[in-house]
Each structure stands twice: as structure tokens, then as C-alpha cells.
Amino acid sequence: MRTSALAFRSASSSGARNGGPRDGAPEATKRAVESAVDSAYRVYEDYLRWGQQAAGIRPQTNREGPTMKQPPDVTTAMFQMMRMWQDMTQKWMGFAMPFAPFPGMSGGLGGHSQAAETTASTRAMEVELKAAPGQRAQVNVQLQQVGRGARLSTVVEQVGGTATMDTVRIDTRAGSMVSLSIPPGMPDGKYYGTIVDDRNRECGALTVRLER
Amino acid sequence: MPRGDASSALITDVLEEYGSATREALFEYIPSGEPRESLYDLCADYPRRGGRAMRPSLCIATARAFGRSVGEALLTAVSIEMLHNAMLIHDDIEDESEKRRGLPALHVTEGVPIAINVGDMLTLLSLRPLLDNGERLGPSLALRLLEETERMGRESAEGQAIELGWRRDNPSDVSEADYLLMVLKKTCWLATIHPVHAGALIGTAGRFPSEPVLRFGYLLGAAFQIQDDVLNLIGDEARYGKEIGGDIHEGKRTLMLIHLFEHATQGERDRLHQLMAQPRADRSAKDVQWVYEAMLSYDSVGYAQRFAQGLAGAAQYEFDRLFGSLPDSRDKRFIASLPAWVIERS
Q1: Residue A196: left if φ>0, alpha if ψ -120 to 50, beta else—which one?
Q2: Out of 1.10.600.10, 1.10.287.1260, 3.30.1050.10, 1.10.340.30, which CATH number does the structure's domain B3-344 have?
Q3: Nearest CA of chain B to the CA of A17: how many Å?
Q4: Hey, are the CB atoms on B140 and A89 less than 8 Å from each other?
Q5: What angle (nearest 5°) sits at the alpha carbon of residue A188, between those of residues A182 and A190?
Q6: Which tens digits make up the pLDDT trace of A1-30?
């Protein structure tokens, strides 16, 4: 290991030799800056080209800079990606959160209990829950800001199972009302659904936990 | 107050505020049980030493610029800071660094095996806040942030591998483009790209595109790294927190070294190549001094400073394209001030 002190000094206190541009020369500065920016963007574009498939990033070679594009309209491919995303989410919940409470849940389960978490950007929301006698359910809804009257829907699927709840209705005409009736005979477990609007854009998520 | 001073004060304030919040939450994630002396107490060592907390602050500030609360971004910020500290421990071993944040590096005081294990544990501990995100942000976004973290970790390790490979193989033809790619992966992903992207994802419920963030984060992070390399040569050791000249001693391929290789005489290049081929322990203070003098002589340091200025300017441009439409806020101004700050800091 190094033990003796080094006698370094400021870069500006030395004169540059031939080969390198002199410190402070405007032309040299301009050239260095232009060269830096050009090199940097070229490396960036190469990086995107090499890595786009693995990274899942769309290349954008406009050197004028990126534009803040809105996400494109949902196509079939996008819808398939969304389905894949939901499946991944369910798998993840299956292994990563087997015993963790759902967001917004507080305390244990109670008969006909319900819980709705609101975040800073979540509009006022009511949750109406109907369940068969003896069935305990807990519901959490997270919803982004959506326009009044937005048509929202979700299909809630059992995490790690095959049961589906298609009895969720979301009414946004006056505030947001989420009504959910648990069909009799639904198996216990965790359920999850992504809330989408009429253009299949993700607007939130709904989680349900059933227990007898 | 002059504009530059106001920006500097804003950055100091935000870093202090978000850094403190992050550290406080971070310590909650470090177990207090045994083994303490050889593990958990040491996990808290680097975080306790302070640091700028630029990464977690960038994450929180970005989420805040989109209108979210500090609390919504805090766990992600904690994870970022933990992973950063874990990587520092391992980097210090790999680089044979002697100091970190003004004190002896962990492997110097505790030995390499224990330091490696502490780094491993910190890496694992950084996952827990991301899992806990599910309760606050919902499972979709929490999973997305976990995936983004995995991507960032992979890019960082690849960048580190590129640099370590250079030190092992001692190539003399490393180009600026090679260096920038290495920096993009090794530095930018963890320092800027991931924190900004994570904050933007939190701010938009997972719907913010990756690519514009990647571009801004890359330019900002590269300017930051080059300035960091410059400070390693001409900085104030007390403020910089690492040994001055350490990069030359470690044989790191910096922009200054690449510039020197390109502009030195054949005889100087041969000597430089020979020096870099030596094990670190064989590189004397006199050797390091010679390299440093040559860098000054060929204005390699000035060149790197101008290079960083160019990147910072481009980062500023990309910031305007990326965040220009957001309403004015303290957090937006903080992020906007960073490109200038990274090249002005000493």
C-alpha cells in the first residue's frame, strides 16, 4: 500500500504541453465539448441498439433529444403484454407475499370486512362488498385519478389458482364506487385484478382476500 | 444571493433532508440481533459515515416532482442507498481502496472476508424495502421496481466487470467510447438512471417510459463520474473522502489516462503501459507522481473537465425535454440544478 504523500497540484496551475488542447482556450473548449457530446450520444445509441432486445427498450435515435410521448394506443400486442404482466404479478405474489397482508389491510380478517386504501392521488372512493354468510373477505382498491364517468373494469383472478371473480363493478359517475359481490362457493385465497379503462390502460389494482 | 449559490444551497438542503430521511429508514432495516460485531453493526458502518445521498435524494425528488409524497418513494430510496453501500464495500475490495468517506475502508479495518460478507448481507437487505413497497404502492408497481432494481444491478456488475477486465488485461487501446460505455453501465445505472426512473415510475404509477430517463441519467451520471475522477486527482482529500491519486495507484482507466495514452510520446506510452501492467503494490508513489505530472503536462485533466462540461450541458438539455412539462417545484429545481452541480462540486 502507498504510504508516502503525493505532491499534487491544481490542473490550472500547470501549462499544457503539445498534443492536448490548452486549458482555457475557447476553441479547444468548444472542440472538447462538441467531441464529448458527440461521443456520448454515439455510445448511447450503440448501447441502445445492442441492448434493446434484452432491455426491452425501444430505440430512439433522434439526437435532438427525446420527446415525451404518451404511451401508444393499446394494440393486441400491448394487451398480450398486459396479460403477461398480470400473470407475472400473480406468480410473484404467490412466492414473495404468501403471508403478507395486502396493501391497505389492517388487522385480521373480519366477517364481511372491507378496507380501502386511498393515496394522495386517489379520488374519494367507496367500496361496497357483498359476501355469503360465514365468508370473510377483505378488499383493497388502489385507483389513479380518472375522469368522471370513466369506464373502468377488472377481472379478478385467484393468485396461484384458476378461480375468477367477474362480479366487480366500478362506477365513476359520482366519485368512485367499487361494488363487489363474492359469489357463493368461491375458494379461499388471494385474488388480484388490474383495473383498466376502456382503452385497456392500467388505472389501478384491486386485491381481495377470502377466508372462512 | 447569486443564482449559482441559490442552486447550491437548494441542492445542499434537499440532499440533507432526503438523505437524513433515507438513512433513518435504512437503519430500521438493519437487524439488531447477532452476529453484531462481525455483521450487522458493520452493515451500518458505511451508511453512518454519511455521504452525499445523491441517489436516494434523486429518487425521492423525482417522485415528488410528479406530485407524490416522500413516504411513497422512501422505501425505494432506502433500497437504492443500501445497494449503493453494498457495492461500495465490494468496490473498495476490488479496487484495493484504502479510504471511504474519510475513514479506512471496511476491508482495511475488518479484513476482506468479513467485508465481502457484509456487502453480501447489505445486498440482500436491500430487497426487503422493495418487497415492503407492495403494501404502499401495490403489487404491480412494487414488482416493477424490483425488476428495475435487478436490471440496474446487472448493468452495474457488467460495468464493473469491464473495468476489472481492463485492469487485469492492461489494454493500451481503451477508447473514449469504451470508457463511456463502461461508465454508463458501472456508474450511471445506479447513480442516476435507476433513481430517476424509479422515482418517475412511482410518480406515474408505473407508466413512465424508460428511454428518456436512460438518456438523461446517462449524461448526468457520466459527467458526475468524470468529475469524480478529476477530483481524485485535484480534489481536497478531506472533502473528497478518498485518497488523492488513488485512481492512478489502482490503475483505473479514466478519461485522463485514455487522453494521456493518446497524446503521449511513444516512449512515455511504453512507460505508462509498463506501469499499468504492474501489480498495485509495485506502483510506487514516484510512479503515480510521474503519471500525474504527465496528465497535467498534456492537459488531460483540463480535457476531462471540459468533457464533463459538455456532458453536463447535454444532460441539462435532456432534463428540459424530460421534465419541462412538469409544474415548477422545489424538487424539479433540485433535479434541474444537478448537471451544473456535478461538475462544479469540489
Answers
A1: beta
A2: 1.10.600.10
A3: 5
A4: yes
A5: 85
A6: 333 444 444 444 444 554 444 445 677 777
